[in-house]
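Hello,

Our lab assistant flagged a job as stuck in the queue for most of the afternoon. It eventually completed. Since we weren't sure the result was trustworthy after the delay, we are filing this so someone can double-check. Below is the sequence as submitted and the structure that was eventually returned. Let us know if re-running is recommended.
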Amino acid sequence: MAMVEQALDPLENVNISAYRVLFLLLMLVRFRSLNAAELNRHLSENPGVGRAYNSETLTKYINTLREVGCEIPRSTSRNDYSYDLKKTPFPLRIDAVERDVAQKLLALLACQPDEALFSDFQGFLKQLSWYSDSACLADDNAVALLPLPALSRRAQQMREYRSYCQAAFTLDITYHADGQELRMQMEPHAVVTREQRLLLLGLDCQSQQSKSLDVDQITEVRQLPSKNRRPSSYTNITFALYGRLSKGYRLYPDEKMVYQSDKEIHIKARVRETSGLMARLLKYGAQCQILQPESMRDTIRSHISGLLHNLENPTEIRPE
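-- returned structure --
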């Protein structure tokens, strides 16, 4: 495709008819199906062409593509008088191992409570199938979705709480924590999976602090008539990794590398809720340092000071 786009750069001493044919091929690869009016719109908007053509000329260009192997059926009422490119002329080669990996990953995602992960990946494989020499990457019958009762329940919870976040109404929540039944009014922002737990992230209306609740601890939810006052906010956190950890680190979603040297890398993460990231960074020990923001550095200092205090002053264990 890059070669085709490069060939379509308006240059002097180029065969204009060949240019038009290549441009029509590029449009059909990009959109797969275009009628005569749509083809002419693209031709008119192209600085190297700048005009429309009659159906006879368009048919001549399409026939040229057919002669070199492009599968384009006749434009008839059955296909709304469109020119449909049935197969990509530049297929990606996908071997048996890669197909097997794709199917295994699809099966793995089918066993996750977040159904969007499965449907998004299946849609990607369907797109990839068209661009490749393999037509069975995303067979609808390739994965039998037979979720376990626990998985089905988790998927239902995720749908329910995501709907609360999309509706953006304040929630009156009753939940259990530390053996007590508590209540909170929360503005729901997002639902995330962390360490096998499904968490509802939002803003505590009373304290105006970001909170996360384990949905398994929630016993009752009631939507209030008031809408969220504050939109979901993100925190940008920059941290450094050193030594061996900096060599093989793989970026998480919403992370990007902003600096790299032989001895260290700097990562910028964008997160809704900081406790999960803080717990992960603490596991990296001395090979990790939080650079920004200062509030996050203070939180880490306070957490480490608390751990040191507990080690220096162990709680006395009394026999029962």
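-- support follow-up --
The delay was a queue issue, not a problem with the job. The result is valid. The two ends are 74 Å apart (CA to CA). Residues 141-146, 316-320 have pLDDT under 50 and may be disordered.
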